[in-house]
Design goal:
alpha/beta, 11 strands, 11% strand
Length: 479
């Protein structure tokens, strides 16, 4: 079993985290030795970077355990997984490996599942040593996670934290708006991404990819009507955040939502960071002309690419008499590509549409930087003040917002409220169910008067999840 001491399982975490860098000579020699013994056969000797990046890609591409279609036959139970993760933090990586893999009490393949790693088909039938690098990365990621604070476990603890805290960061996602009929993005069958398969994209998220938008804005415009805010009504969860503000407890609401309903609920601009922008305004990608988004609502609702009025007016004034310029594909730059189906072909509009810029709603696409206010507020202001974090209605799968939890001080308690658990972050208390019902119950227990027309006098069944000490489900009791 000596070879295990030379595997990535025993390597310092920092060396595995920085997968782009080469290890120092001594560790490199050790890793090469292990590589000869347990690497995948198609990898060449000494190719450490490819060797580790392959396993990292496998790990990154795996769904959360809650999303597995079915459990593998040889899988750690939830209770076992919790115990293994707890033991790892208690005794450290080296002793943990000695007690498990080296003692022969469990296979590396099965132990992978304790860290939410489903053994990939690529390794099926391979010797157990083939799973060492994947397990090593899983252990490294587990140790790099935020450590749960052991003193906070119960619903009563959550209520007391709410009552005593005065600088609360609330990080919200689409789940706080679903009760209004606005779909979230990732829910199976009902989420927006599941409804976009008809577009034939390799990944539904490409709808919000800035490169795809520049190549063909009609793809985004074809689905814009499905995500366009159609109401100024806000949910009880929005009302809960406003109540925190009224009580002088809200430090900042970082929202990933683009529906602008936080503003409708009365969250003050100085308390609100719209991490992914909003539909409040739209900007021309050519000249930078900005308008209220209401001015392009007709185009958005019709699925028609909106053009910049200022560009059109300018071009009409400067258009040489009797001369037309060739239409560009999408208003970004002239090219020789085939005319797209979303472009009109009438002679009267040929010139203006050919070069007038496309109006892009001021929402943040994949590939675009978040507003500077996000970083500035978090780093220069909130980090040193926050005394409680509430994460509500988000799976935290989009960086850099997903990294906020781990960035904040380790001693700051964090509470998670959503329909499904967040597997990659250890919160102090998890409350699973409908966000509106949960925040209403918290307010009731705190003695706070949360008023909203959508709040019903439902009785909730609250129970602790088996194998967990601080994860609860909230369900409405049947009448």
């Amino acid at each position: 079993m000596d070879g295990l001491h030379q595997s990535p399982l025993k390597a310092p975490a920092i060396e595995i985290i920085d997968l782009s860098s080469k290890p120092e000579s001594e560790d490199e020699e050790q890793r090469d030795e292990h590589h000869d013994d347990a690497s995948l056969p198609e990898l060449d000797d000494g190719d450490d970077e490819d060797y580790l990046s392959l396993y990292e890609d496998l790990l990154d591409g795996m769904p959360d355990r809650s999303e597995w279609d079915e459990e593998p036959l040889d899988t750690c139970t939830v209770k076992e997984s919790f115990a293994f993760r707890k033991r790892l933090r208690l005794v450290g990586e080296d002793q943990f490996i000695t007690e498990t893999i080296e003692a022969g009490t469990i296979s590396a393949k099965k132990l992978c599942t304790a860290f939410g790693i489903r053994p990939p088909p690529l390794l099926e039938g391979q010797p157990d040593q083939k799973y060492y690098p994947l397990l090593g990365l899983g252990i490294t990621r587990e140790l790099s996670k935020r450590v749960k604070l052991p003193q906070y476990n119960t619903i009563e603890d959550a209520v007391e934290l709410l009552k005593r805290s005065s600088n609360i960061i609330v990080l919200t996602g689409a789940g706080i708006s679903t009760s209004l009929g606005i779909p979230d993005f990732r829910s199976k069958d009902t989420g927006l991404y599941s409804q976009l398969e008809h577009l034939g994209l390799s990944d539904p998220q490409e709808v919000f990819d800035i490169t795809i938008f520049r190549e063909d804005p009609s793809i985004f415009y074809s689905v814009a009507k499905d995500i366009l805010p159609t109401t100024q009504k806000f949910s009880p969860t929005h009302g809960f955040i406003k109540l925190l503000q009224d009580k002088g407890k809200l430090l900042t609401n970082f929202t990933q939502n683009i529906d602008n309903l936080e503003s409708c609920a009365g969250i003050l601009p100085e308390k609100l960071i719209q991490c992914h922008g909003s539909f409040a305004t739209a900007t021309c990608v050519e000249c930078g002309y900005r308008v209220k988004c209401e001015e392009i609502y007709k185009d958005l609702k019709a699925g028609r690419v909106a053009r910049c009025d200022r560009c059109v007016r300018t071009l009409r004034q400067t258009k040489p008499f009797g001369i037309k310029r060739k239409r560009s594909m999408n208003g970004f730059a002239p090219n020789k590509k085939k005319r797209q189906s979303y472009e009109d072909s009438t002679d009267d509009e040929d010139y203006e549409i050919a070069v007038a810029g496309v109006m892009k709603p001021d929402i943040t696409f994949f590939g675009e930087d978040l507003p500077e206010t996000f970083h500035d507020r978090l780093v220069q202001h909130d980090k040193d003040l926050v005394d409680l974090v509430l994460v509500i209605g988000t799976s935290l799968k989009v960086a850099p917002v997903s990294e906020v939890s781990g960035f904040l001080p380790a001693e700051t308690p964090q509470i998670y409220i959503s329909r499904e658990p967040c597997q990659h972050i250890d919160f102090d208390i998890d409350m699973l169910g409908e966000c509106d019902s949960i925040v209403t119950e918290l307010c009731r227990r705190a003695g706070w008067d949360l008023k909203h027309k959508m709040i019903k006098d439902d009785k909730l069944d609250v129970h602790l999840h088996e194998g967990y000490e601080s994860r609860y489900s909230f369900k409405i009791k049947a009448a």
